[in-house]
Amino acid sequence: MRIAVSTTGDTLAAAIDRRFGRTAGFLVVDLDSGASEYIANSQNLRAAQGAGIQAAQNVAATGAEAVLTGHCGPKAFRVLAAAGIAVYLDAQGTVAEALERFRSGEWEPCEDADVEGHWV
Amino acid sequence: MKRTFAVASGKGGAGKTTVAVGLALALADRGQSVRLLDCDVEEPNCHVQLGVSLTATEPATAPVPEVDTACCDGCGACAQACRFHSLAVVRKQVLVFPQLCHACGACLYACPQGAIREVPRRIGLVRQAEAESITLVDGLLDVGEAMASPLIRQVRQREAGTEVTILDGPPGTSCSLLAATGGADHVLLVAEATPFGLHDLALASEAVRLLGLPVSVVLNRCRGTAADAQAFLAERDLPLAGCLPEDRRVAECAARGGTPYREVPGFGAAMRDLLARLLGEAA
Amino acid sequence: MKELVAISGKGGCGKTTVLASLAALAESVVLADGDVDAPDLHLLLRPEIQQRTPFVAGFRAALDASRCTGCGRCAELCRFEGIRMADSRPVISELHCEGCGLCVDQCPVQALSLADATCGEWYCSATAYGPMVHARLQPGRPNSGKLVSLVRKEARELAEREGKELILVDGPPGIGCPVIATVGGADLALVVTEPSPSGQHDLRRALELLRHFRVPAWFSVNRADLYPEGAAGIRAEAESLGARWAGDIRYDSAVTASQYEGRPVVLCPDSPAGNDIRAIWHTLQKEL
Q1: Is residue A114 part of a domain?
Q2: How far apart are CA C288 and CA C276, in angstroms?
Q3: Chain-wide mean pLDDT for chain B?
């Protein structure tokens, strides 16, 4: 199973980036093999609008089945839901800590966006 | 003699609507038919000062893409073509985000299957009312809608057919101001003779000059001769169309929902003078 | 850290006057001017610019004239008057081009491309009251909402870095894109209005917007003594719509005088408006 985590760095020790659409990047981790791949999000950081939508499409293209992030707006959530990707919010600490929490099974995926879109 | 005057201001609350309505009434008093288009679609207020209710309403729309799922093969070309990210494709399914759409048509041309057509989506209302020989048209943007320009363009489609059109523009210097004033024969900028007012006037005049439109300025709420404000205009080559004195009665009248043109002594005459100067008659 | 934004619906109601005074009263604060189309806050707070950064957002079409055959397809397709033909050559209007890329996609000889568009500039500055983030959008350029979001983000980061407790944001007029970008996610919005039918009408729309974005709404009627009955009516209606009254402000010629002096009115001794704003601050402070 592949998991995408919004983060500021490209290692498991990197800090979580609490933003989804305008995160610095995503670390996509294969839980079975332990292999990871970093996807930069710099293009979306500069997008005039719709960064969350584009980031969600990029995550979907990696084959990830779950996203661990801080907050998620309604538009990005809609794309992720359509792609069948579960969204786990309020991730904190490092990528490794978030993955640990995910593995513990005590983290419920959210049913809806938790913040209003920034519109732009 | 079809002519279009746009009334605008860099800063809100400068008296733009009072002047636009005053000019329309001054024209009406000459027995001329006039069309007043309220293009301040975020906060249209001309109807309040004219004391009319806008009974004839029509939904205003902007085109958005609709995907025919029978033809769509989920190739994703539309989402790639849309620089505004108003389309997304995941699992061969197209999602549309209408509020981000600029109605540019890029997705339409990008679709190799011809599966996209445009359908209208409501963004607000265009409203109309008649008062004496004034036809008032305004746009009212739905709350939560971000883009005013398409609605402004729809209000302006009702420009034709009369002798003189007065446009009441939005405050600020944004794309809405350009949509509201573009193509006008003359832009009248209303500015309060205060530091805030003059600063925002300079910004608005820059925007209007980009459009290459002739511009002049009405200084509002002047104390005395407003010499420093006049000097400010002279430095920037901005012609002065008129000065309106600081008069608490105008503010109070507008506050009550009255019509300063009719109710405040001297204000009607000042508007008639201003109109004469705008029309190029000797004042 | 909390974020308070001042908006008004109708322009000219005095939100900048109020916000600048709150800036002078608050102790640990970062200031942000969210009115990037016609910013005024700097006239009262006199910031000293320490860093300027260009604001790049969206795209603009660019023509490679050596490839162009002058077929005119681009001008025919553009829906924004962004390209017109002159002497069989396309001319791009920087003012009208929205950067949609339709012309780029459809040019039969790939003579067009999209370039990053510089739409303005933003600044980090120092004021006597605290650091300030502000910006200036080039006249007529789109993406004002994006620039407002950027100003707020930078203000937030600055507040975190410097350990400030409060961000005060001066919002733009209206209820459109830049206002939406100003209020989303704020802790408290203060709507400043005036006792007129337009003030009331626009307050109603601003409150609707705040409800839509679930931002706690407070309001204040400026120049309330110009028309006390009107102010009372506005108060009753706003409260029935769920907004809370922060206090009214009296008409005061010191407000204009303070603009000439370039300082918040609350610093003018014995100013009625200044005293009223001080009372408003005490009320809001409890809420924050």
Answers
A1: no
A2: 19
A3: 92
Contact call for residues B34 and B135 (beta carbons, < 8 A)? yes
C63: domain CATH number? Answer: 3.30.70.20
**pLDDT tens column, C188-244:** 999 999 998 889 999 999 999 999 888 999 999 999 998 999 999 999 999 999 999
List residues of A whose CB lies inside 8 A of any B CB: 47-51, 53-54, 56-57, 60, 75, 78-79, 82-84, 119-120
CATH code where residue A76 lies? 3.30.420.130
What domain range includes position B12? 3-60+123-278
CA distance A18 to chain C (A): 13
Q: What is the ipTM of this complex?
A: 0.90
Nearest CA in chain A to C59: A48
Collapse the DSSP code of C242 into the 3-class scheme (helix H, G, I; strand E, B; otherwise coil) and give the result. coil
**Would C53 be classed as within a structural domain?**
no
pLDDT in tens, C141-156: 777 888 998 999 999 9
Residue B241 neighbours by CB under 8 Å, 6+ apart:
B188, B216, B217, B218, B274, B277, B278
Paired tokens of B130: 């008649």
CA dist., res. A7 & res. A1, Å (int): 19
Please provide the size of chain B in residues: 283
C18, C156: one domain: yes
Nearest 5°: phi and psi at B267? -70, -40
User: Is residue A90 a part of any domain in this protein?
Assistant: yes
